[in-house]
């Protein structure tokens, strides 16, 4: 049951990061979950373990990491789109 909670929280973190940055992560719900998980990992790695914990995610570092991840991915996809057209 804890993995289900982690999937839900990871998806919400990825969705919030996309809303804050103003860009969608490719892949829809799956992309949001992946962005939330990778962002949580990056945020905890860079910023440490602090703040409230929900679904085994430290919310503040996870959200910051997901925002950075979504911004980087959107820049990469935007530059790929320009080079094609």
UniProtKB/TrEMBL annotation:
It is found in: Cell membrane. It is a multi-pass membrane protein. Keywords: Cell membrane, Membrane, Transmembrane, Transmembrane helix. It comes from Paenibacillus enshidis. The keyword Cell membrane applies. Its main location: membrane. The chain crosses the membrane at residues 6-22, 29-50, 56-77. The keyword Transferase does not apply. The lineage of its organism: Bacteria, Bacillati, Bacillota, Bacilli, Bacillales. This is GlsB/YeaQ/YmgE family stress response membrane protein. Belongs to the UPF0410 family. Pfam families: Transgly_assoc.
């Amino acid at each position: 049951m804890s993995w289900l909670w982690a999937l839900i929280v990871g998806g919400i973190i990825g969705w919030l990061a996309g809303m804050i940055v103003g860009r969608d992560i490719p892949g829809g719900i799956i992309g949001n979950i992946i962005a939330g998980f990778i962002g949580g990992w990056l945020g905890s790695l860079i910023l440490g373990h602090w703040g409230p914990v929900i679904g085994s995610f430290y919310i503040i570092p996870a959200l910051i990491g997901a925002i950075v991840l979504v911004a980087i991915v959107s820049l990469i996809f935007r530059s790929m789109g320009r080079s094609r057209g």
